[in-house]
Amino acid sequence: MIRLRLVIAAIAVVLLAAGMTQVGAQQPSSVDPNASAVQEQQLLQQLNRIQGLGSIPDTRSYVIEQPMGRVWRQFHEVWLRWIGGGIIFGVVALMTMFFLIRGRVRIAGGLSGRTVVRFTSFERFTHWMTATSFVILAVTGLNITFGKELVLPLIGAAAFSRWSIMAKYAHDFSSFPFVFGVATLFVMWIKDNFPTAADIQWFKDGGGMIGDKHVPAWKFNGGQKLQFWLACLCTIAAAGSGLFLLFPFYLTNIFGMQIAQGIHALTAVGFVGLILAHIYIGSVGMEGGFHAMATGEVDLNWIKQHHSLWLEQEFGQGRTAPPPAGATTRPAS
Amino acid sequence: MRAYLLACLAIVVVGAGGYFLLNAVQQPSGTAFATDGARISPNWAWRAPSTATPPTASCDPRKSWQWFFVDLGSPEGESATCSISQ
Questions:
Q1: What is the pLDDT of residue A120?
Q2: What is the CATH superfamily name and number for domain A68-316?
């Protein structure tokens, strides 16, 4: 009898416990599952960071969360893509429209067959070293910003991972010849890139790009000078901020790293837009433009049309080249 | 064309110089931000998949050229987990 009572009591306890569990599951919990997150958020707002303790020497690694991290993530993952995409596609669209409306800037008098040395071998060597490095830097850099959205879906995670690792190292190493190239170009061409009165007139006349007016210019016209100085400034900003990224936390803290990355990225997309315009005008946009940097020589009529002041200066020094073999000399119309 | 080819050669040469310079100055993050004095198992740093046994043997850090060519294969005598973790 006692055993029976014990069994009944045990069953009653089990049923009661089960019932309480059921009731407990149906009623709203008294513990707010988000409470810890709320406290974390309050902590973040009040102290401006969530910081822990660690046993490694780098005390900056103890910071687990800080508000600027979210801003940086928003910048890197959202805003930068819109800004970068806007600049790059904007420049491409502008160049396309300009090409469709204006067409190629032709040599008005046609080829004369006589050439003038415009760029020496060393100038072309330095230009192409800088240009090729820039293309590597641009492609590998844009992969950091756009690769996850554009390349990853095309080639898959494994291939994208390999490509991105290689791209990262190519980006680091090609920065050296690029900066070296820009520094050399700066020293070589600075004397020809100081603004002159002719540049103001060049801008007033639309650089001869709008209409068929031949605007006098020295070795570099106003547009080229503007591009020279912008390229130098962009290189200083990109290389300077790049140093912070090459040596993370050596020179600054996490906030500085975020600022450096932002400057580096914004400068880079602006630089890409600038160079896209440069590539356009140096290739499809202008007849004879690419030839100048490919062979170093330009046609006499081309130089008369685009850099007449420089031609007069150079003719004064007797620096002309003979006509190429097999070329016929035609008078300029 | 000659100027362009020389420019490409210069990129390789100067880029290689950059490689050696960075190699001499930079440290792998696992070394730069770690210390032997930490009271944690060094195996913790090797992010082995949960199904794999943490390596008992030490893992040699990969060299820069291995990273560059994504050659992270298993050297002879080294646990395969080392390759995964790196």
A1: 93
A2: Transmembrane di-heme cytochromes, Chain C (1.20.950.20)
